[in-house]
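Re-run with default settings, no changes from the original entry. Doing this only to confirm the output is reproducible before filing.
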Amino acid sequence: MQQAGAPLDGRRLRDAYGLFATGVSIVTARSAGGTRLGMTVSSFNAVSLAPPLVLFSLARSAASFDAWAEAEHFAVHVLSAAQRALSDRFARAGADKWAGLPDIAGPATGAPLIEGALAVLECRTHARHPGGDHLIVLGEVLALATRHPAASRPLVFFASRYRELAMPDRADPAPPDQGPLGWS
């Protein structure tokens, strides 16, 4: 145990944070000029049901920080285990993350959508708060689409590695997907 008052070692702190298993999400938005933005995050959290609020954290060191900090709408995509390659693609800085992906605008916000996620939450930026080396972005959920949980497994991150949850087999079949992009 580290002594109280002693400076924290950044690597040890990051490793300790990594022991909290998280789901993996991609957050997307459009810049003021219409450019599609996207990044992989493990910092997505539900905040409130009434009003419906969520948050994610944006590193101030991100190359597209200014565009993100001004975005009025965004979409959170909760990834399935089958979307690991997509998570890796959107985690890289400077790459053309959107190459080969269709430009689908969310019906409620116009935020770019990615097909195949377990859940998509379209949000209006509600507030921004300083959070050390990050900006905390709070969003009000305006629309959502989900897949039936039995239809797929979530992508999980723990101890700096992707993981998968063991899901019990179900005797009841998943209901058919409905709605835009196969969500209900």
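The chain has three helices and twelve strands. The first strand starts at residue 22 and ends at 23.
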